[in-house]
Amino acid sequence: AVRQPTRNLDEPFYTSCQEPAVDAPRENAAIVMLVRNSELEGALKTVHSLERHFNRWFHYPMVFLNDEPFSYDFQRAMNESTSGGARFELIPKEEWSFPEWMDERAATKSIAAQGRAGIMYAGMESYHHMCRFYSGKFYTLEALRDYKWYWRIEPDVDFYCSISYDPFVEMARRDKVYGFTISLIEGADTCPTLFRQISDWKEKHGYRTTELWKAMVSPSWVPWPFRSMMSWFRARDSKGDSWSLCHYWSNFEIADLDFFRGQDYQGLFNHLDRTGGFYYERWGDAAVHSLALGMLLDPEKVHHFEDLGYRHDFFFQCPANAQGGQRWESQVLGSDPTYTSWSPERPGGIGCRCECDGAVTRNMGN
Ligand code: GDP
Ligand code: MN
User: Which sites are catalytic (predicted)?
Assistant: First the structure.
């Protein structure tokens, strides 16, 4: 059932430039990047951009994560580039590998076949480990245990506008759980059974569903193999909800770690992990996060940072272009979030000019 958006569901935190409150209290937060040594150049580009447009006033620490030890050059470059300190963390092997029960030979074969089938990135074993990691294990890392909030960044990102307020403080003040910039459509071939698995978990745990519906759609007298086959083709769950493949693009996220560390989310992740879908299919962490948020949270807990100029790959959001464009309304499981502002209908190209830049730079005597 599609829930109607209420008024003022998600206003921008500020609509004008702020004088950065450099002495105000901070939240317990870290900026986090998973990255390979070989991506140093792109990683520096992101860090420089975020420092210039935000962190030179706010000085949040940056935590770099890697499945291999960081090189001396990487660490030196980041120590020189971060204003709030840098930490370098090695991800434990068990959190970056096949689940122990999995038949690795079968999984490796499946990954090769997915690659031959042309499913995006699906032929790379490391990409599957990355998606599984970011879907669940990331949140329970020892290295992040003492933080309440994270801001995820990636190599090769541009921030175009000055972020002249503290987004962590505003998220906390307004009781938000998850913030995003861009939403996209997932490739259906990466996740043929993801929605069905999530809806199975949902029904098992009684989320927004009724016994009557359950009995009608998946009657218990049908033997299991046939029920399973029926549900494989199920594009809708027993409540009539379906998934449009829309999701929040997860290379940018500002979110509450406690939500993702909590019993509900981790229970869902463990359920998904046990199905093997992170390897026998190529489920992306963005899709997993988005579906979980849609199912477990009220829509007003999700914030669209429409005021941030942001680019990664070919997709960007420019607040100057967004004027008169569609506003994000709500996403609950089964409803369509509208696109944010990457669409080609909005001209302007990648180079977004933001008024904040000039104003803040002037005010900071720079
Ligand atoms: P895309 O955004 O889906 O194209 O995927 P990316 O290649 O950008 O990967 C997402 C994030 O995971 C980026 O921050 C990468 O640096 C990181 N990443 C991907 N694969 C690996 C890996 O094998 N090792 C490490 N350390 N980081 C990885
Ligand atoms: Mn990326």
Answer: 253
Which residue has the CA at smallest separation from atom 23 of ligand 1? 126
- Ligand 1 in reach of 130 Cβ (< 6 A): yes
Strands (E), 296-362: 302-304, 310-312, 315-317
ipTM for the whole complex:
0.99
pLDDT in tens, 187-203: 999 999 999 999 889 88
Helix (H) or strand (E) holding 302: strand 302-304
- If one counts the domains in the chain, the total is 1
Domain residues for 64? 29-363
Q: Is the CB of 154 under 6 A from ligand 1?
A: yes
Confidence label for 4 from pLDDT (cuts 50, 70 and 90)? low
Instruction: Locate 186 and state its tokens.
Output: 């997932």
- Pick the atom of ligand 1 nearest to 42's CA: 16
pLDDT score for 310: 87
Does any domain span residue 11? no
pTM over 0.90: no
What CATH number has the domain bearing residue 68?
Answer: 3.90.550.10
Among residues 253, 300, 306, 329, the one annotated as catalytic is: 253
